[in-house]
Amino acid sequence: MLALITEAVDDRSARGIAAAVGRLVSAGDLPAGARLPTVRDVARSLGVSPTTVSEAWRSLTRAGAIQTRGRSGSFVATPVAPRQSWRFTQMGASPPGRLDLSTGIPDHDLLPDLSDALKRIGDGRLTTSYLDEPVLPALETVLRDRWPYPAERLTVVDGALDALDRIIGAVVRFGDRVVVENPAFPPLLDLLQTVGATVIGVPIDDAGMRPDKLHGVLAEFPTAAVFLQPRAHNPAGVSMTPDRAAALAAILAEFPDVVAVEDDHAGDIATAAPVSLGRQLPGRTVHVASFSKSHGPDLRLAAIGGPAGIVTAVADRRLLGPGWSSRLLQGVLLDLLTDPAAGVQVAAARDAYAERRAALLTRLRERGVTATAADGINLWMAVDDQQIALVSLAARGIAVAPGAPFCVTPLASDHVRVTAGLVADGFDDLADALASAAILDSRGSGVRARPHPRGLR
């Protein structure tokens, strides 16, 4: 193998060595699982310093071509098994219905009106150079005033998922272990799969991720990052309490190499007050604030704030792609965040979502159905059999999202996610249909009431 590598290298820089070995891996000449020669042996054979070979090996490790196993040496990485399908696509597995509650999107009628904001933008001359700062200065001032802790740097990207994608690119490498809540948001799990991360799910309760379980995982496994939803957890609707955030931060303080990433996707429609581990760990917390559900999905805007090293890496990488998020849209968002009338509309939406969640949740509990919907726009409902529930509801013209794609590891019972925020009336009829689908009698047919264990599992 040493002779094969030596013969393939024609450029003896670190980049050239990495490229040559990468080509050998791609061609199958270096098979998966094969142990590579030591850095010193390769350096001696090529007539370069061990530092040069070490740099090449680091590049190959970042690219996922090889894996280093400490004193055991470096090995050609085993290719990631082809995915069966994205979890994200499975969320829409239910047949389309007359009442589609599978989407997890806000009610369009509760979004603030953009008409006046668009008029006030004027002629839209907000960009003078491709090298302008990525965030409008006035918008950055407003964002910093709203931020749950002092962030070293802020930038704006194209929505919460774009933010998560770019943060993952900055902090997670092939083979890294990362911790997420179980259940978790399926697109996050898809994004972590694409970079070859090993995902570990930690259970939640009604105050957020369980500290004891998180400590157990971090004590056992070297971990790169912990991903959290601080408010209106999707799908369970849980919002993290300040005490829970402090407890989680205290645990992370014991593990200085772990980064906390917070996805505050619900934003201003969340009933709970903003909370963040950044209040205790500002140097290791990256917070994402999205405005899609509160101010409009088509704004496609979310802010990232946190340690300068991570946020700068995200902003610099974007210069090789979109460069910046539309400053026209940033101008609209700035107007909405500072317009009292828009603030009133968002507050009214927040109250309406809370009323809708409570109305549906109360009726389901009256029918013996276990469900949670403490915050946000979703309701997480336990069912005896996911597939039967989906089919039963589809027959009634109702679509909901299956629970399986949300789960890193299976829960004690099947679940479905219902976008309760889209339900403005007809709560009794909908609750009847959901209860009938959720609870089966001994013959496998739906019944309307049977005691069911309560609580998150």
UniProtKB/TrEMBL annotation:
InterPro entries: Aminotransferase_I/II_large, HTH_trans_reg/aminotransferase, PyrdxlP-dep_Trfase, PyrdxlP-dep_Trfase_major, PyrdxlP-dep_Trfase_small, Tscrpt_reg_HTH_GntR, WH-like_DNA-bd_sf, WH_DNA-bd_sf. Coiled coil: none annotated. Residues 11-79 form the HTH gntR-type domain. GO terms for molecular function: transaminase activity. Keywords: Aminotransferase, DNA-binding, Pyridoxal phosphate, Transcription, Transcription regulation, Transferase. SUPFAM superfamilies: PLP-dependent transferases (SSF53383), Winged helix' DNA-binding domain (SSF46785). The keyword Transferase applies. In the C-terminal section; belongs to the class-I pyridoxal-phosphate-dependent aminotransferase family. This is PLP-dependent aminotransferase family protein. It comes from Paractinoplanes rhizophilus.
